[in-house]
Amino acid sequence: MKYLIVGLGNIGEEYKNTRHNIGFRILDALAGASNLVFNINKRYGAIAEYKFKGRTFILLKPATYMNLSGNAVRYWLQKEKIPLEHLLVIVDDLALPLGAIRVRGKGGDAGHNGLKHINEILGTNVYTRVRFGIGSEFNQGQQIDYVLGEWDEEEEKLMPERIDKVVQIIKSFGTIGLARTMNQFNNK
Question: Which pTM does this prediction carry?
Answer without folding.
Answer: 0.95
